[in-house]
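Researcher: Structure prediction, please.
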Amino acid sequence: QVQLVESGGGLVQAGGSLRLSCAASGRTISDYRMGWFRQAPGKEREFVAYITRNGSGTMYADSVKGRFTISRDNVKNTVYLQMNSLVPRDTAVYYCAAAPWYRSQYDYWGQGTQVTVSS
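Model: Predicted structure follows.
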């Protein structure tokens, strides 16, 4: 079992930045591909970014490419999402998730952290 706890959300003006953190416990995240997802009010949850187990590979949704950066510190058992040039459509609850290296499905999810971008 992996427990994930997100932090770093908040209220920011358009054009601002936030850094989200996802602290894991229970098992080392080095066995997992880690991802960030978000869900805006009235919308389905959507993929934001993922990072491979050793951090050598990343992928981003087109909507955040060039503005968001996912990273990980396997020693600290933590994953990060640096969000720059935020716009109001980035407003959502952001979730961290972990997928075992041998599965495409994300098995473990955090409780989410709210990000609100004002115009």
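Model: The first strand starts at residue 3 and ends at 7.
Researcher: Thanks, that helps.
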